[in-house]
Design a protein that fits this description.
Helix content: 55-70%
CATH topology: Chromosomal Replication Initiator Protein Dnaa, Chain: A
Mean pLDDT: 87
Low-confidence stretches: none
CATH architecture: Orthogonal Bundle
CATH class: Mainly Alpha
Largest sheet: none
Length: 103
């Protein structure tokens, strides 16, 4: 993708929409400050994909989601732990979010 066509906000919006479609949580709820376990897992999976697959900086993720960068660090670390402890559920979500979109 060329730099002129790449818009990081579209990447996040696309991942949020896909996470919403898979989980049934509205995008606004995923972006919210609510901290129920399942909702955090979904949010962290989006952050993990933005970091690992799209090379977003921690600060970029934090800014986009209105969080402190240390919260993003915690979320990504927790996401990595979850992917090891719950490979069936969590990794399926991360895998789905990591797939390229077809337009």
């Amino acid at each position: 993708m060329t730099a002129a066509l790449y818009n990081p906000a579209h990447t996040a919006a696309d991942l949020l929409a896909r996470a919403s479609a898979v989980t049934g949580f509205p995008v606004a709820l995923i972006r919210s400050r609510k901290r129920t376990a399942l909702l955090c897992h979904v949010r962290w999976s989006v952050w993990l994909v933005l970091r690992d697959r799209h090379s977003w900086t921690l600060q970029s993720i934090a800014t986009h989601f209105h969080r402190h960068h240390t919260a993003v660090i915690h979320g990504i670390r927790a996401a990595r732990r979850l992917s090891l402890s719950d490979p069936s559920g969590f990794q399926r979500l991360v895998h789905h979010l990591s797939q390229p979109t077809t337009h």
